[in-house]
Every structure is written in C-alpha cells, then in structure tokens.
Amino acid sequence: PGDNNVNIVYLWFDDLGIGDVSFMGGDIPTPVLDALASRDVIKLNFHYTESLCTASRSSLMTGRYAWKSGINELAAFCSNLGFDAWLKLYPEILDNEMGYNNFIAGKWHIGYSSQSQLPFN
After folding, report:
1. Known catalytic residue: 109?
2. Dihedrals φ, ψ of 56, to 5°?
3. Of 82, 109, 110, 117, which residue is the catalytic one?
C-alpha cells in the first residue's frame, strides 16, 4: 500500500464467543491473542452481525447487513445463493481503489452458483 496506508489484519472466527478466549477471561487458551491484547494491538468494537457463517461472511465482505446483500442463510454448493455481480467486496475496494495487496484463507461459503461469485474472480 501507499506510504500512508496501515496494515489491516482481520481474524474471523466462526462460533467463537468473545468470552471464550483467554484474554477476555475465557477458558480457551489464546497465547498469541493474549500477547497482542496486552500491547493494545487488538481493537474490539463489538459489532456482531449474524449467527450463520454465510451471513457473517457476507457482512464482512460487503460491509452490509446480510439481509441487504441477499445472503442471510447458509450457502451450500447446491444452492443459488450468492453475491449479486454489482456488489463491490472489501478486497476489491482495498485492491482496486486503495492500492492494497489482499490475501484470504479459509472457507469461502458465500456463493457458488456462478463463476463470478467464486473468490478467484
């Protein structure tokens, strides 16, 4: 990115409550997150969207509530559920408009019904 851009790292966990991790007093040991939290690197704003992985990812990738992007249920390989082609996703904005390099790892689970919905497009 440009000289004025900061690094952005999203860590996205399905089905993990904020009270589960050790830096928030939970029982799940998270030593790396604990170290980041002790240095005030972790910024939590407690905005939660949906309880389903598909809907949560939809909100993360679009910045919209899942019901506004039409993806508010589980997107399976056999469903027609997926993003509309006109929607801009965060990686597109970060890359094309702000000059960032992007990387994503993990399951996609937010649309398979057409080539335009797959993450390599």
Report:
1. yes
2. -65, -45
3. 109
